[in-house]
Structure formats: C-alpha cells, structure tokens
Write a structure and sequence with these properties.
Blueprint lengths: L2 H21 L6 H14 L15 H5 L3 E2 L8 H5 L9 E6 L2 E2 L5 E2 L6 E3 H7 L1 H12 L4 H9 L4 E5 L9 E7 L5 E3 L2 E6 L4 E10 L4 E11 L4 E9 L5 E10 L4 E8 L4 E10 L5 E10 L4 E10 L5 E10 L4 E10 L7 E10 L5 E10 L5 E9 L3 H9 L4 H17 L5 H9 L11
Parallel strand pairs: 1-8, 2-7, 6-9, 7-10, 8-11, 9-11, 10-12, 11-13, 12-14, 13-15, 14-16, 15-17, 16-18, 17-19, 18-20, 19-21, 20-22
Antiparallel strand pairs: 2-3, 2-4, 5-6
Helix pairs in contact: 2-6, 2-7, 5-6, 8-9
Length: about 425
C-alpha cells in the first residue's frame, strides 16, 4: 500500500473522530477548532520525505485507531502526590487525560491567575486573534490536530510587575489504555516586568495513549521565566508537544527539557525573539535505551537586534534507541548584534543505537556572532582505562563517565528538586550496564 493511501485513510479516520466530538455537544472552542481542522486538512500527515519529519517514522501513530477520553478515569491522590515536587504542593495544576482536575489540583495563591481558555477568548481580543492566526498559519500537522480536538484549555496570566515567588508545577497524568488521544492546551501570558517559575511533568498510569499538547508562552517587556519540562511517560505511548514562545523587549525565557523517551517522543519548539534585548536559553537531555526515541525539532527566529539565544542538548543512547536534533536559527535582516550558540552532543553506548543531527544557521544580517556544532562519540577509552587504574571496576567506571556526561545538562536546571529527581531516576537508566 502506498504512503499516500495510508495517509488518506488515516486522515479520514481522524476527521470521523472529530465528527464524533462535535456530536457530543457544542465544543467550547468550536471556532478555533474549525480553523485548526481546515489547516489539518491542508497539511495532511507527513510522508516519508517530509522536511519536518525527516528522522522519525509516524506510520504506526497515524494508522492507530484512537478514541477520545470519556473524562471518567480516576487517578489516586497517592499517585499524584508521588509526582509533585517538594515546594510545589500548594501550587500545582493537575491535568488528567488532558483536562484540569480541580479536585487533585492545589491552587493556593494562584487561582486568580487561571482562566478557562473558552472564557479568556471572549474577553481578551488580543488572545483570540493570536490563537486564530496561530491556527491559520500552523506548519505542524500534529499541532493542528491537537488544536482541532482541544475542547478546553487553561490560561495562566501574570499581571504587570507581579512576581510569583513559589514554583508552579503542572502535572499531566495520562491514564492510558485502548489508544486514547489527549490534547492539553496551556497559554501563559506574562505582563511587563513579571516573574514566573514553572515545572511541567508528564507521566502515565499505563501505556497505549497519545498525548499531543501545546503550550504558548507570551512574554511582555522585561518578563522573566524559568521553565523545566520532564517527559516521563510510559514507554508504550506517543508523546508529541509543541511549545511556542514570543519574547518582547528585554524579556528572558530559560528552559530545560529532560526526556526518558517513549516509543515515539517529539518536542517541537518555535521561538521568536521579537524585540531588542530578549534572551533565550534552551537546554535538553535524554537518556534512552531499549527502543526508546526522542526527537527535537527547533526553530529560533531572531527578529530584532541585540538578542541572545543559546541551545545545548545532550543525548545518551543505548541498545536500539534513536534520537534526532533538527534545529535552525534564523537571523532576520536587521537583527544586528545577534549572539547565538547551538551545540548538540551524543554519547553512543551501542553499535545499534542511532543519532541524527542537523544544526543549521540562516543569517540575513552582517553583524552577528553565531556558532553551531554537533558531535557523536563513544566512551573515551583512555578515561575509562584511567578510572579502572584508580581502582574502579569496568562497570562502575563506565557508569561514572556516562552519568557525568548527562549531569552537565541536568545540573543547569534551576530547580534543585528536579535535579535531585533526575539524578535518581533518569540517570538510574545508566546503571548496571554490561561491559
């Protein structure tokens, strides 16, 4: 069967699923859904040579017969508590199967910052216009699919000069089973000179689900964000996310992403440094074994002068696991005095593991400082031998070298509680390797 026939059949299945969603009642965001649906029909699922999906195969995903969540699944408070970071117990948004669960959430001091997306678009014309234009111009078919099936979302708004001192955690819990698709949507709006610290974490009760979420970060002049995302879903699941960031004058967005991998994980970042003096830091780390996959697709747009962007990603890849990094920094005409660095390092622990890298610069200004690079390597034999001469076993020496490689990214995370968690979970995947 040709790819074209497969894609056509898969697209029809999702269109039929959308009809069922409409039949269930009037969606709260029907206008936005219809715009996204039209865009989904235009884009279509990616073929094998699609530029945005060069390094991953979505055939199994698009051919799967997904259903929509009934919203009746239960998650225990004990399960939720086990994934809440210390210090976030009173400021935690818990999404179960894509929808905010008020019973499990703890909103002390931040309830006034939250508004349902369906309500926000009726009172905030700027937000409504932004969402509509975003849907109309979407370039990622899976983001269009997410917006098509999103019947509700949440807006977290921080006012001018408001500083939320305590860290806010967002926990996404997927109950899984029977190929269910979840489409959470979060919009973060930060006013002038505001400050916010956020941790998001994705976990699953059991596998078999497809979580396909979108987050939009809209930062006004002088706003600052520290953001860390932990992807710890069940292996037998699909995880797709798109994060859009818009930075105004002198705003900053510092982000880290830690990934455990699933059968197919894809992170898509679209960042626009729109006004002078804005700053982006985007770091990522993944530790993969078995047949786990993590793919990063990143586009950074420098649209104004004197802006800074730094990207640093590391992947540790073992067994038959796969990773890819497709990242482009675009320096637009007039974006003079841009400073941008991009570096990707991959540590391969198996002859069957696979890593693809495509760092790229597109520069249309003449007074800039931009660098990029990528490396793929194995354990340094001399360092390994040296550690063994100091009394370490071959296994322990190898664990030390591999964990040190990943720790250099983990330790840049601005939340000590997340660093501690990842040192005990993500890095634990590097223990007891045969040598």
């Amino acid at each position: 069967m040709s790819d074209t026939l497969v894609e056509s059949s898969a697209e029809s299945a999702f269109l039929d699923l959308h009809k069922k969603l409409v039949e269930q009642g009037s969606p709260a965001l029907s206008e936005l859904q219809q715009v996204a649906l039209k865009r989904f029909e235009v884009l279509g699922f990616p073929h094998s040579k699609h530029e945005m999906y060069t390094y991953l195969n979505t055939k199994e995903l698009v051919e799967s017969a997904f259903s929509l969540s009934s919203g009746s699944e239960k998650v225990s408070e004990e399960f939720v508590a086990s994934h809440i970071y210390p210090g976030c117990e009173n400021q935690c948004l818990v999404f179960v199967d894509g929808a905010l669960n008020h019973n499990l959430s703890r909103l002390k001091g931040i309830s006034a910052n939250l508004t349902p997306l369906s309500e926000a678009v009726t009172t905030d014309q700027y937000l409504k216009k932004y969402l509509s234009e975003t849907a109309e111009n979407e370039n990622d078919v899976f983001a269009s699919l997410s917006a098509t099936f999103c019947g509700e979302g949440m807006v977290f708004k921080v006012g001018d000069k408001e500083q939320i001192s305590e860290t806010v955690q967002v926990l996404f819990v997927s109950t899984g089973g029977n190929h269910v698709m979840y489409t959470p949507r979060l919009v973060w709006q930060l006013g002038k000179l505001s400050e916010l610290k956020v941790i998001t974490k994705f976990v699953g009760v059991e596998g078999g689900y497809f979580i396909n979420g979108i987050q939009d970060w809209l930062l006004a002049e002088g706003a600052g964000v520290s953001f860390t995302q932990v992807q710890a879903d069940s292996f037998d699941s699909w995880h797709f996310s798109k994060i859009r960031v818009q930075l105004k004058r002198n705003s900053r967005f510092h982000s880290s992403n830690a990934s455990f991998g699933t059968k197919l994980t894809r992170h898509h970042y679209d960042v626009r440094l729109k006004e002078e003096g804005s700053e982006l830091r985007l770091n990522g780390v993944s530790v993969l074994d078995g047949k786990e996959q993590v793919h990063n697709f990143i586009r950074i747009h420098h649209e104004a002068p004197q802006c800074i962007s730094n990207q640093y990603f590391k992947n540790v890849i073992n067994d038959h696991a796969r990773s890819s990094f497709d990242g482009t920094v675009i320096v637009n005409e007039g974006a003079q005095l841009t400073n941008s660095d991009q570096l990707i390092n991959n540590l391969m622990l198996s002859n069957d593991s696979h890593a693809d890298n495509k760092p790229n610069l597109m520069i249309f200004a003449d007074d800039v400082k931009c660098t990029h690079g990528a490396t793929i390597g194995q354990i340094d034999e001399e360092q390994w031998f040296y550690l063994q001469t100091r009394g370490l076993s071959a296994r322990v020496a190898k664990e030390l070298l591999t964990s040190s490689f990943a720790k250099s990214i983990i330790e840049t995370i601005e939340f000590p509680e997340v660093v501690k968690d990842l040192n005990g979970t993500l890095l634990k995947k590097l223990e007891v390797r045969n040598v």
